[in-house]
Amino acid sequence: MAAAYSKEFRREVLAACDAGLGTHAAASKFGCCKSWVRRIKQQRRESGKTEPKLTRNRVPEWYAYREQIASDQPSAGPHAGRAQARTGHDLVASNALHGAAPTETHVEKKS
After folding, report:
1. Full residue range of the structural domain in which residue 41 is found
2. How many structural domains compose the chain?
3. How far apart are CA 32 and CA 2, in angstroms?
4. pLDDT tens digits, 54-94
5. 53 near 39, Cβ under 8 Å?
């Protein structure tokens, strides 16, 4: 991620805009993006601040579901449910892949 523009640079760009230079002209003069110039002008207009934000106060999307996620986890670890879910042919195939002796498990298909 690129570093934020300095406070001094922001002040220079905003001073040029205040002196009558348009957004496009200011962006061309200072070698920055038009959308960035619009954004700092808006930020100053709405909050009165011109400094770059030091931290983001973003909350992950999953955070609202954190309690549900924690309660859904099996007590023996995150992968404990997988072994319990295997039955019949899955278990035989898994044993064959891992070198275990085949078992006498037979699961009949429902008609």
Report:
1. 7-47
2. 1
3. 13
4. 777 788 888 888 888 888 766 555 555 555 555 555 555 55
5. no
